[in-house]
Specification:
The protein is mainly alpha-helical. The protein is 41% helix and 10% strand. Strands 1-2 form a two-stranded parallel ribbon.
Length: 61
């Protein structure tokens, strides 16, 4: 999923579980730069693993 995400420094990324996933944050805040990358049932360990993986890929680019 994160590999497909565009590389845009202006994005605001929401991470979390199903509580966060269920909202349309870009509409609630009227901000098209907000993207929802939440996964239902996710836990802190999963979020950290994905963000660290993404950060490592960004450093290599």
């Amino acid at each position: 999923m994160f590999e497909e995400m565009e590389n845009n420094n202006n994005l605001i990324v929401f991470l979390g579980d199903s509580i966060i996933e269920s909202a349309n944050w870009d509409e609630l805040f009227n901000n098209p730069n907000i993207v929802n990358r939440c996964i239902s049932g996710d836990k802190t360990e999963g979020v950290l693993t994905r963000t660290i993986h993404r950060a490592d890929k960004s450093r290599k680019a």
